[in-house]
Amino acid sequence: MANHDPDLNLIFQALSDPTRRAMLARLGKGAVPVGELARPTGLALPTVMRHLGVLEQAQLIATEKTGRTRMCRARPETLAATADWLAEQRAIWEGRADRLEAYVMTLMQRGDADGPDADD
To answer: Coiled coil located at which positions (predicted)?
Structure first.
C-alpha cells in the first residue's frame, strides 16, 4: 500500500476503542485543543495523548501545535477511503447472497429442496 493510502489495519484498530471513537466523533464537529478532548474522558493527559497518537498514526486525525496549544482536527478523507472499502466488501457479499438465493430458488422449483427424506 502506498504511503498516502490509509492502512485499514491501523484504522480498524483505532476505531476499536470507544474512547477514540468518541474523540473522533467530537472532532467531526470541528478542530479542538487536546484539553477539550481530554475533559469528557476523565483520563490522564498522557493516556489521552496515547489515544490521539493511535488516531494520528491511523491518519484519522491531524494535530498541530499553535503556541502552547495542540489542536486536533479530523481527517474525513481517511474515513471516506475506509467507507469505500467497506462498500466494496458489502457489494461482494450481497452478490454472493443473491447468487445463493437464486440457487436455492432453482432447487425449490425443481423440487430438490425437499431432500431425500421428504416422503417420510
So the answer is: none
Per the document, the length of the chain is: 120
Tell me the CB-side half-sphere exposure of residue 66, using CA atoms within 13 A: 10
Take residue 16 and report the three cell numbers written for it: 476499536
CA 90 to chain centre: 14
Among 30, 89, 93, 87, CA closest to 61? 30
Instruction: Tell me the three cell numbers of residue 43.
Output: 483520563
Q: How far apart are CA 46 and CA 27, in angstroms?
A: 19
pTM score, two decimals? 0.72
CA gap 115, 117 in Å, rounded: 6
